[in-house]
Amino acid sequence: MSDADELIVWRDGPLGRLRLNRPKTLNALTLGMTRGINEALTTWRDDATVAAVVIDAQGDKAFCAGGDIIDLYTVGKAGDPEPGRGFWREEYRLNALIGSYPKPYIALMDGITMGGGVGISAHGSHRIVTERTMLAMPETGIGFLPDVGSTWILSRAVGSTGYYLGMTGARMNAADAIFSGFADHYIESGALDEFVSAMKEGKSADDAVAMFATPPPEGALASLQEKITDAFGQTTALAVANRMEEMASQGDEWAAKTHKLLRRHSPLAVSTAFEAITQAKTLSSLEDCLALEYRFSYRALTGHDFYEGVRALVIDKDKKPKWEPAQLEDVTPAMARGLLGPIGDQEWKAA
Question: From CA 328, how far away is CA 239, in angstroms rounded?
Answer without folding.
Answer: 10
